[in-house]
Amino acid sequence: MAQMLSTQPYKGTRDFYPADMKLRNWFFGRIRRALELAAFEEYNGPMLESLDIYIAKSGEEIANEQTYNFTDRGGRRLAVRPEMTPTVARLVAAKMGELNFPLKWFSIPNLYRYERPQRGRLREHWQVNVDIFGCDTYEADLEIISTAVSLMRAFEADESMFRVHINNRRFFNDVIAAIAGTDAEGSRKVSKVVDRRNKVTREAYEKDMAELGVDADKLARIDALYSMSVEEATALCPESRGSQELLELFRALRELGLDKYCVFDFGIIRGLDYYTGTVFEVFDEAPENNRAMFGGGRYDNLVGLFVKNANISGVGFGFGDVTLENFLVTHKLIPDIYASGTKVLVTRFDDVPYARYTALVAEMRENGIESSMYIGQKKFGKQIDYAIRNNYSHIVVMGGSELASGTLKVKNLKTREETEMPIEALVSFLLA
Ligand code: HAM
Predict the structure, then answer these.
(1) Can you tell me the distance from the alpha carbon of 247 to that of 230, in angstroms, rounded to the nearest whole number?
(2) Is the CB of 327 under 6 A from ligand 1?
(3) Whose CA is nearest to atom 2 of ligand 1?
(4) Model-wide pTM > 0.85
């Protein structure tokens, strides 16, 4: 016999059966509503992009190690999008003259990254992307961070469950220069070591730092930064524009009462190369969910990849479905999504013409009642089993004898209550 093909999805990807889709649609529905309420507009773009747009700015890890890429039949080098930010920057660049800034945009694309599958990280995920383009002041950073908090609040998450960790790339470069005497390139290399520090041993971290000229004394001063408050840290280089941006942002967060969700964290670098100012990640406070849930920040020159001297800044974040689902499950924030709502199955009997049933279902649907007739010819008991297993709330029973007397029965499958009524009363009964 020929070998059967595997039923497993490709490593690191998931199949979404209807129950899985129901959950995903529920949480993305909440997010979409919260974003639309805050006047963000939805956009989308293609799954395939020129590989070059990732090589240019996303950084080596994403472009060289994590993209799924190939050459098409016309010899073009393409990648399946590993992130959305270069795509949205391209969209903005292409219609720069016509768009009305500041833009408040969002999208929920699926993305592919060749990563080692693990808790919180897969090869395909869906990522809510929220970005503001064309506002250079801290107000856009503030709006983005408060939007991130409001998305968590939309699930009734409170400050004991998650934390926004905030840093600033300009501040990072300046404070490293002040401590270690590095130039821009040297600071960039140090940032890569800091970014990796939780993934390597302490010895490896020290060795990497030493290779960049950071001796034990300088390293101790850098290490001290991880436990400093924003005031203490910025006092080390008060003249830095990054310090001023950080202080301004934290002052505004305090004014809005959002500081209880936020913390300054010198260890937040972000793996992507395009960030220039504020950077942040949101972490689940539950220790088993240790991968970042959101990542984002300000990028001042991504649109400039596509249009010379474009000068349109952006700030935004990405928020993945995998970590969100872990978060919601861990903190028990998923309600019974089948609990509410009426869903009616019309059971069928041979002695009633088919058209009587289709008319009943059509009338319910016209009145906004989710309903179906049982498809096929099974015994009544099997039809009831089917209704229960498919989360119907009610069944309608209209056999030959009921029809003859112009009545039907409605059975509530949760309460087991049965009500007999004239056929014409069905819709108003269900709506009541
Ligand atoms: P990122 O930090 O690479 O940023 O990803 C953002 C979020 O997407 C992560 O915090 C995580 O929730 C989710 N995520 C990323 N990779 C995976 C994966 N392999 N499996 C599951 N979830 C994942 C970006 O992608 C930026 N482009 C975000 C951004 C938007 N910055 C500005 N605007």
Answers:
(1) 7
(2) no
(3) 295
(4) yes
